[in-house]
Design goal:
The protein is built from six helices and no strands. By secondary structure, it is mainly alpha-helical. It has a single domain, classed as dinb family like domain (Four Helix Bundle (Hemerythrin (Met), subunit A)). The mean pLDDT is about 95.
Length: about 160
């Protein structure tokens, strides 16, 4: 049976792996699109951030007023499903992307261990991953991050960076 501990550990692993892909990037590389009209690393990281908030906090316990302290509505909308990479001067700054990426993760890691098993067993409407439950939403957060980490890895290679693994 899947557990809260497994979901949290998978999220920790996914973030650790994503950081290995980001740690040697220069600031000017985050908004480069090696393939015209395709994505850049800043959008990938912003999108991971938005999804982690949605999958580990919003879908589990709903929106809380203090959420605005670590992820704004405009940040969420800019990187939501269906959005696309934009030039660096049209959305959140690199500093905002980095700080929100860390703040959402920190908040999720603080709240997730306190979720009850009864809460995590509650059903969710589609779309969902694995099972139509709140625990399934948490499990998908790690898979979603790793999917986008793969895209970051490809963009890195197109920028001439060596592979991480």
């Amino acid at each position: 049976m899947l557990s809260l501990e497994v979901a949290v550990r998978q999220i920790e692993f996914a973030r650790s792996y994503t950081w290995t892909l980001l740690e040697d990037l220069d600031d000017d590389e985050w908004f480069v699109r090696p393939v015209p009209d395709q994505s850049h690393i800043a959008w990938q990281v912003g999108h991971i951030t938005m999804a982690q908030y949605a999958l580990t906090l919003l879908r589990i316990r709903g929106k809380e007023p203090e959420d605005q302290e670590f992820i704004t509505n405009s940040f969420f909308k800019f990187f939501k499903k269906g959005s696309a990479a934009q030039p660096s001067d049209t959305g959140p700054s690199l500093s905002d992307i980095r700080s929100t990426f860390q703040a959402v993760y920190d908040r999720a890691m603080m709240e997730m261990p306190n979720y009850s098993l009864d809460l995590l067993d509650e059903s969710l409407p589609a779309p969902y991953f694995a099972t139509p439950t709140k625990l399934g939403s948490m499990l998908f957060a790690s898979h979603h991050e790793l999917l986008h980490a793969g895209q970051i890895g490809l963009i890195r290679r197109l920028l001439g960076k060596p592979p991480v693994r």
